[in-house]
Amino acid sequence: MPVWCSRLLYQLVLYCSIPLVLLYFCYRSLKDVAYRQRFSERFAWQSVPAEAVGGIVVHAVSVGEVVAATPLIKRLLQQYPKLPIIVTCTTPTGSERIKQTFGTSVFHCYLPLDTKGAVKRFLTKYQPTALIILETELWPNLLQQSHKALIPSIIVNARLSKRSAKGYRRGYCFSQLLLPNISLLLSQDRATLRRFRALGYQGAAQVCGNIKYDMAIPEPIAALVQQIAPQLKGRPVWVAGSTHAGEDQLLINACKLLKQRFENILLIIVPRHLERFEQVAELIQRSNLSMQRRSSGEAIQAETTVLLGDTMGELLAWYQLANVVFIGGSLIERGGHNPLEAMCFAKPVQAGPYVFNFTQAYQWLAQRKAINWLTDEASIVANTQLLLEQPALAQQQGDAGLALYQQHSGACQRIMLAMTTFLPTDLAHFRQQQLAKQHVWYQSNIFSSWQSEYFKPEYWQQQQAVIGQSKGRNTAWFIQYQQTKLVLRHYYRGGLVGKLLSDQFFITPVNHSRAMQEFTLLRRMHGMGLPVPRPVAASYQQQGLIYRASIIIELVPYSQDLATVMSQRQLTAQEWQNVGQTIAKFHQQGVYHSDLNCRNILLDDNGKVWLIDFDKCELRQAGAWQQQNLQRLQRSLLKEQGLSNQFYWQQQQWQDLEQGYKLQKKT
């Protein structure tokens, strides 16, 4: 199925499912009123504070992902103290954890539904400079619209099980809406990276490990543990976390039998989903075991045998207080949940046979003899009794799990290094400002503060800072600002339409405007180490249904374009090879130059080759366009030769360029 057809089918299915999504929110709101609050954020209709614009968006779908992302977000706050960090999620419990953990140090909202309109509004309002997504929360419109706006999408802690990979292969047409739009993939393990490659992902990737091995304990959890610990003193505590239907009854029955041996045992059972709280409560009540609900807020009574964890976001506290931990979703074919949270507290871990969601972690635990496999009620009772009766064995297993946890820590540091290497090098100095209908992006290490006059040539003329201007169809002004030479260029239309509208363009989201697109692409290429002018500022000025745009870039010093040089002298074979190698470097990074001609290639006094004028250019996957790019350059050389009586160009010199191009391609 063609990609355009897959995209159309996805949009149709998505819009048809919106009523069902709304019904789902209404249903969930019967038990949690938060599901019908802040509804505007689900469609990106909310207003956004100016201070939140232009930062980094980190998406963590729910509580578990927020906990995992916490050390990474804290590192981002340290690395970019002047850059806004926007943390999104999709659940009220995730939202509460974000607020508890970060307070006002980050901005927070729900990630909108993946409709094209909602995603466009979200990106237009926040204008992020990067999008970081945890694990596999991949949405086609979010990734595609970010790619179109040249916003890098970085998937961190990426995880893809065998089972999930099979699903993606069956939905191959859907996968192709996702994979080409991922800018950087940082996987938990080699198996995940291998599966993404097998699906067709061709972008930048690196194995960084599992960020959950770097988990930070939130302050509210530490405070809760201190509060609850005295109430459980001397009691054997068995915690069953993230349980599913089909497991609860087995655990309750086992607890009933264990109570005959351990009279004061306490089972803390925490269902994975809040809509099952009432169902599990009924199961406990029918067992005739003394039950208490955590949501009551009362102290845990001595006669309570089962505590129902019917609040969200407290599982870490229960794990820390446990003597033995059972990981839910593993006695049924759900695939099991994350054992790392129990491991970091040195707790002995129990699990059923179905752990394919975290195969690697459980394999490592098995190698260390730090996992207890359960299959039925009898094995649950026997193993739990063993661990409670032999605390030395339980401690030995817990210590082995903790050692494993510590051995694989450091993923956060590796992820930060990979991201900061990939992201624009000037990220710390990137600023956005809105003045009435004018949006301005600029680099604060060049302009410490911004004035709207900076985009007007008249202002620089009054300052006697104009040091020259171009002689092309549209004037570019060369400016001396302090110690930096700059180029100010206004955007104009070409062709017949240009004669009518000149510099007026029909309104489009700020991120998609010509100035911001070129500015963003230059930043990306500059970060890649490609020889391009450094972007300094860009402007989007809206007026009614049209906008005007300008850009300021750094002047490439002591340079001339190829056409000018070739009107004066003949280039050497080595210089032509350097041109070919430089173009190949851009192609290797997927940079498509829409107007690659001999006037957009510069040579400086040191013989370095530069490319300029990236208006209407973009990043693409490898394809036929690369050869078409070269052919366009060749036509421009022939055209210049036909227009000038003195133009030092011979057709055989093209072979030198091609030789340099091919040599670079082999590296």
Write the layout of secondary structure elements.
Blueprint: H1 3-29, E1 56-59, H2 63-79, E2 85-89, H3 92-102, E3 107-110, H4 116-126, E4 130-134, H5 140-148, E5 153-158, H6 162-170, H7 172-178, E6 184-187, H8 190-199, E7 204-207, H9 219-228, E8 237-243, H10 248-258, E9 266-271, H11 277-286, E10 291-293, E11 306-308, H12 315-321, E12 324-327, H13 340-343, E13 349-351, H14 359-367, E14 371-373, H15 377-389, H16 391-407, H17 411-422, E15 430-435, E16 438-443, H18 457-462, E17 466-469, E18 476-481, E19 484-490, H19 495-501, E20 505-506, H20 514-528, E21 535-543, E22 546-554, E23 559-561, H21 562-566, H22 573-588, E24 591-592, E25 601-604, E26 609-611, E27 618-619, H23 625-643, H24 653-666
Helix pairs in contact: 1-7, 2-3, 2-17, 4-5, 9-12, 10-15, 22-24
Number of strands: 27
CATH class of the largest domain, anyone? Alpha Beta
CATH topology of the largest domain: Rossmann fold
Q: Give the quaternary arrangement of the chains.
A: single chain
Average of per-residue pLDDT values = 92
How many domains? The number is 4
Main β sheet profile: 8 strands, antiparallel
Strand proportion: 15-25%
CATH architecture of the largest domain: 3-Layer(aba) Sandwich
> What sort of overall outline do the alpha carbons produce when their principal axes are compared?
elongated
The H-level CATH homologous superfamily of the largest domain, spelled out, is 3-Deoxy-D-manno-octulosonic-acid transferase, N-terminal domain
Which spans of ≥5 residues are poorly predicted at pLDDT below 50?
none
- Class based on secondary structure composition and strand pairing: alpha/beta
Q: Please state the CA-atom Rg, rounded to the nearest Å.
A: 30 Å
Count of DSSP-assigned helices: 24
